[in-house]
Amino acid sequence: MSIVTVQLGQCGNQIGHEVFNAICSDLHGTHGLCSKKENESYHDACKERFFCEEESEVPVARAVLVDMEPKVISQTLSMAARSGYWKYGDRSHFCQKQGSGNNWANGYSVHGPRHKEVIMNLVQKEAEKCDRLGGFFTIMSMAGGTGSGLGAYVTQCLRDAFPTSFILNHVVWPYGTGEIIVQNYNSVLTLSHLYRSSDALLVHENDVIHKICAQLMNIKQISFRDVNQVIAHQLGSVFQPTYTAECGLHYSRNPLGDLMETLVPHPEFKMLGLRNIPQMPENSLAYSTFSWPGLIKHLRQMLIANAKMEEGIDWQVRPPRLGSYIPSSHSTNKPLQFNTSIANLVILRGKDMHSVDLGSFRDPSLYTSWLNPQDAFNTWKTPRAFNKYEKSASLVSNSQFLLKPLDNVVGKAWNMFASKAYIHQYTKFGIEEEDFLDSFTALEQVISSYTIL
């Protein structure tokens, strides 16, 4: 089944480009441990997901690019074409001359309705090119105006137009120090609206990725492109083909459906986090060796201690004994010591992956009590290495990982709202105070649900 990617705003278009680059880089890499037949089936499954062929024989990304300013889209189209490995469709993009001014309401209430027909026509044409449509993967920021406001509106339109298709929103969480003054308003409005329309939200935090660039990738002057490439690598490690338990020796044909079935057992819980191990500069790979037991041990501790990368893990955190009561530290603003999970998915890529013992992830104490641990944990595997990593593991988790950042964003937005700061910038575009209150209420419910896991 094919995935149509919808790239929204500057952030969404730049990350989307890096995702397709990472996928192509993986396809053209050397994977000598795999048989020719294995490589061919991997290639075929990947291309069905992400690309369609044109007469030029250069794969064309199954993507729609949307921004209210032309500059980023123009750069993105030309960079893809110059790669020689892949390109975007000639008529798969939409832009205007004026942006949304970092105003969510402008993107949602003005640009969205005004350009709905042309944007949805582009999406429809892309969907019709798929022999079998598996769903939509949107990429967007939640801090600015176009990616967040227009992105929330387009997601709503996707749900209305394709009610039975899966929708996964990839959302980039803004830097805590602040990118724009109204980012907390924009974030609250974005998340609450996406929660209604989307099947799941896969979140990357800018602060975390920045730290990975500095500490793991040893990048001295970190650019947006460096950050986007780390995000793209992690996304590729999840969305490239794998064998699931149900598929046996055939690559999964329904990646988004499999992801939802595995990780989203209840519509109240839609927040997904992603961790990837190892991650290091390419020139260090030749001098590094990894064992599966070591990778799995680190990945499990990253999960339970809510560490976002393998450096600086708190090894003191332990799962609670089953049956013991843990008072919630959320209400006292202390950090959550233990990260309770609803569901986890581990994806293994590389040699000897069939011999890996994942019993530690089946420990019932890692999970909420209302779900059977047998249903709460799944694993996908492939012997094919990913992007030059001989062995690599990814963890997609539906857990309490985002509780503290979410609580902070809602709290900061509420403090601004209580003093009526900048509200007039939203009301002039039709977003009323009641809309803010509805959004606060929706996210307080999300916080409450995750807190009592």
From TrEMBL:
Residues 47-246 form the Tubulin/FtsZ GTPase domain. It is found in: Cell projection, Cilium; Cytoplasm, Cytoskeleton, Microtubule organizing center, Centrosome, Centriole; Nucleus. It comes from the Eukaryota. Its cofactor is Mg(2+). InterPro entries: Delta_tubulin, Tub_FtsZ_C, Tubulin, Tubulin/FtsZ_GTPase_sf, Tubulin_C, Tubulin_CS, Tubulin_FtsZ_GTPase. GO terms for cellular component: centriole; cilium; cytoplasm; microtubule; nucleus. Transmembrane segments: none annotated. One of its GO terms (molecular function) is structural constituent of cytoskeleton. GO terms for biological process: cell projection organization; microtubule-based process. Keywords: Cell projection, Cilium biogenesis/degradation, Cytoplasm, Cytoskeleton, GTP-binding, Microtubule, Nucleotide-binding, Nucleus. PANTHER family: TUBULIN. Belongs to the tubulin family. Acts as a positive regulator of hedgehog signaling and regulates ciliary function. Dimer of alpha and beta chains. A typical microtubule is a hollow water-filled tube with an outer diameter of 25 nm and an inner diameter of 15 nM. Alpha-beta heterodimers associate head-to-tail to form protofilaments running lengthwise along the microtubule wall with the beta-tubulin subunit facing the microtubule plus end conferring a structural polarity. Microtubules usually have 13 protofilaments but different protofilament numbers can be found in some organisms and specialized cells. This is Tubulin delta chain. It comes from Spizaetus tyrannus. The gene is Tubd1.
